[in-house]
Write a structure and sequence with these properties.
By secondary structure, the protein is an alpha+beta fold. It contains 19 helices and 21 strands. The protein has two domains: about 5-230, no CATH class; about 250-539, Barwin-like endoglucanases (Beta Barrel). The strands form seven sheets. The protein has a six-stranded mixed sheet with strand order 7-21-16-17-8-20. Helix 10 (about 275-285) packs across helix 11 (about 285-295).
C-alpha cells in the first residue's frame, strides 16, 4: 500500500521529450472541417491523418500534441506551488508585487514601486527557491513533489488525447463536441499569438498570455482528473468500479431451508444460494442467451427468410406464417434475445401466453404425472395423453424450460460491500427459483418418454403465483455477511466456463472452504434468526 508520506512518489510526470514525440504529428489548426465542410481539417483536433479514421481502433489510441511556443508549469506542480504559498500564484498572475530575497531564497511581498510581478519574473528565480520547514503535513507533501520534479516541471508541449474519446458529433446539422476540446482550442488560440521574436526581445510583454495559457492547462488537467475521480467518475465509476460485466445487484431475503427429509432430491445444500430466474439470466447472460436461442425457438424460427411456425389460437394446430424480418431479429439474434430477457423484468408479462400476430408461439403439455413437454401442434399429442393438459406457452415457461438445466448449480459469488472479512464473500452454487411456490416436473423426450435426472425441472413455475426476485444466501452465511432482511443488498456474480465449474467443485471439497486459518469454522448457524426461533420454540 502507498502510505500518506509516499503520496508524491505515487505520482509521475510525463516528460514530452523529442523521442516520445517522434512519429506524432502536432495539432496546429483551430478548424474542425476543411474548406469543403465534408472532411476534417488535416491539422485540426479531429484530423484523420493524425488520429485515424472514425470507427478505427487507432482513433482511440493515437495521441498528438500542441506546441505551446512557451514554457509553463505542469498543472500538478503549479497546484503544489500555490498550495505552498499563495504569493507564488499571485506573482505569476500579476495581481501582487514582490522582491527576491537572495538570503532567504524566497519571494517577499513588496509595493508596486519597489517590486516586480509577472510570470517571467517568477521564472527568473523559481529554481532557486528554498522552501522552509513546516509542521503542516500537506505542505510537506507539496514540497517533496516540487523538489522531485523541479527539473521537469516546465513544458512547452501539451499532450492531446485520442480523438475517439472526445470526438465530434453532427446531429440535425448541429455540431457537438466534448468539453475537453474547448480547452485544447483555447490553448491553440493563445499559443498562436506567441512568437519567437516577442519571447526573445521582451518576454514580459507576453506575461498575460502565458498566465492564461497556464490556467487553460490547469483546467484541462482538472477536467481529466474529474473524469477519473470526480463527480462523473467516468474511469473509476466504469472501469475501476465494483461492477462487472453481467453482474447483478439484489436485495437479500430469508432462505426457506425446510426439506421433506434429510437428503431429499433437490434439497438445498449448505453451499447453495437461492436466486431468482430473472436475476440468474442476467448474471449468466451469454449462457442463457445461447440456450434460449437454440432451444424451442429454433423450431419456430428456422432462418430469416423462411416462414415461421406458429400455433392457431382456436385449433392449436401449427401454421406456416410469413412475418416481417423484425420478428426474427427479436427472437433469434443475441441483441433481440437480450431485450427479451430484459422485458422479463415486467412481472405482468411473465404468466401471459406469448402471442405473435394473433397466434401462439407454442404449446406446453403439463401432465398429472409430473411431466412436461413443449410442442407446436396438438396433433403431436399421443392418444394416451389428455388434451386438457395442453396450454398456450407462457413467457416464464418458455425461458425456464430453455435454461433450467443449464443455469442450475453454476458457480455464484455473492459479495456484500464494504468487504470486512472473508465472510463478506459467499462462494457457492446457484439455486434458481421461479415462483415462490413451484413444482417438480420431468421433461419428456421425442417419444414422450421421461428423460434422465439431468432433465428434472425442480422449480417449474406455477401459474398466477408471485415470483422470487431476490438473493437468499444460506442462513449460516448471514453473520459473515453482516446482513439482515431490512433492505440489505449484495452483488451476485456468476461464472459459467467448464474450468470455473470444476475449480469451484474442487474447492468445496477442501477443508479451507469451511475452516479458517485460526482452525475455527468459517460459518455458523448461531445467528439471530435461529436463536429467536429456538427461543420461541423452547420458551
Amino acid at each position: 500500500m502507498v502510505g500518506r508520506s509516499d503520496i508524491p512518489f505515487n505520482v509521475s510526470i510525463l516528460e514530452l521529450t523529442p523521442a516520445k514525440l517522434a512519429g506524432m504529428k502536432p495539432v496546429t489548426s483551430l478548424g474542425i472541417f476543411d474548406s469543403t465542410q465534408t472532411s476534417f481539417d488535416e491539422n485540426g483536433l479531429f484530423s484523420v491523418s493524425i488520429f485515424g479514421k472514425m470507427g478505427d481502433d487507432r482513433r482511440n489510441q493515437r495521441f498528438s500534441y500542441i506546441n505551446l511556443n512557451i514554457r509553463i508549469f505542469h498543472p500538478i506542480v503549479f497546484r503544489a506551488l500555490v498550495n505552498c504559498k499563495r504569493l507564488y500564484g499571485s506573482i505569476m498572475g500579476a495581481s501582487e508585487y514582490a522582491i527576491w530575497d537572495p538570503i532567504a531564497k524566497d519571494f517577499e511581498r513588496a509595493s508596486p514601486i519597489d517590486g516586480r510581478t509577472g510570470f517571467h519574473f517568477f521564472l527568473e528565480h523559481w529554481e532557486e527557491i528554498e522552501f522552509g520547514e513546516s509542521e503542516s503535513v500537506s505542505r510537506e507533501q507539496n514540497v517533496l513533489l516540487i523538489k522531485k520534479y523541479r527539473s521537469v516541471a516546465l513544458t512547452d508541449k501539451m499532450l492531446v488525447m485520442p480523438a475517439g474519446v472526445r470526438d465530434v458529433e453532427i446531429e440535425d446539422g448541429r455540431t457537438r463536441m466534448d468539453d475537453l476540446n474547448e480547452h485544447y482550442q483555447r490553448a491553440l488560440s493563445i499559443s498562436n499569438t506567441i512568437t519567437n521574436a516577442g519571447l526573445k526581445h521582451n518576454p514580459e510583454i507576453i506575461n498575460t498570455a502565458r498566465y492564461n495559457l497556464q490556467l487553460t492547462f490547469n483546467r484541462l488537467y482538472e477536467a481529466i482528473e474529474n473524469m477519473v475521480q470526480g463527480k462523473k467518475k467516468l474511469l473509476m465509476g466504469k472501469w475501476a468500479s465494483r461492477r462487472i460485466m453481467n453482474g447483478t445487484r439484489n436485495v437479500i431475503t430469508a432462505m426457506n431451508t425446510s426439506i421433506p427429509y434429510l437428503g431429499a432430491p433437490g434439497a438445498l445444500d449448505f453451499n447453495d444460494s437461492i436466486i431468482g430466474l430473472y436475476q440468474m439470466m442476467k448474471a449468466a447472460l451469454p449462457r442463457a442467451r445461447h440456450f434460449i436461442r437454440y432451444g424451442f425457438l429454433s423450431k419456430v424460427f428456422l432462418d430469416v427468410s423462411s416462414p415461421v411456425y406458429l400455433v392457431n389460437k382456436e385449433t392449436y394446430k401449427i401454421e406456416s406464417v410469413s412475418l416481417r424480418s423484425q420478428y426474427f431479429d427479436r427472437w433469434m439474434t443475441d441483441e433481440g434475445i437480450e431485450k427479451v430477457i430484459t422485458s422479463f423484468n415486467d412481472e405482468d408479462l411473465r404468466h401471459k401466453p406469448i402471442e405473435i400476430e394473433g397466434r401462439y408461439l407454442g404449446l406446453i403439455y403439463k401432465g398429472p404425472d409430473g411431466t412436461f413437454k413443449l410442442l407446436q401442434d396438438i396433433d403431436d399429442l399421443p392418444a394416451t395423453r389428455s388434451r386438457k393438459d395442453v396450454h398456450p406457452l407462457t413467457f416464464c415457461e418458455l425461458l425456464y424450460c430453455s435454461v433450467y438445466n443449464h443455469l442450475q448449480g453454476l458457480p455464484l459469488f455473492i459479495t456484500r460491500y464494504p468487504v470486512t472479512g472473508v465472510g463478506s464473500v459467499v462462494t457457492g452454487r446457484a439455486y434458481v427459483k421461479t415462483t415462490t411456490r413451484a413444482e417438480t416436473r420431468r421433461e419428456l423426450d421425442f417419444n414422450w418418454e421421461p428423460m434422465d435426472d439431468t432433465h428434472i425441472a425442480r422449480e417449474f413455475p406455477i401459474r398466477n403465483t408471485p415470483f422470487v426476485n431476490s438473493v437468499s444466501p444460506h442462513s449460516s452465511r448471514l453473520a459473515g455477511l453482516g446482513a439482515d432482511f431490512d433492505g440489505d443488498t449484495v452483488s451476485a456474480n456468476c461464472t459459467y466456463s467448464e474450468e470455473s465449474i470444476a475449480e469451484l467443485n474442487n474447492h468445496l471439497k477442501t477443508k479451507k472452504a469451511y475452516v479458517g486459518t485460526d482452525g475455527r469454522f468459517l460459518h455458523s448457524t448461531s445467528v439471530s434468526t435461529v436463536q429467536l426461533v429456538l427461543f420461541n420454540l423452547t420458551g
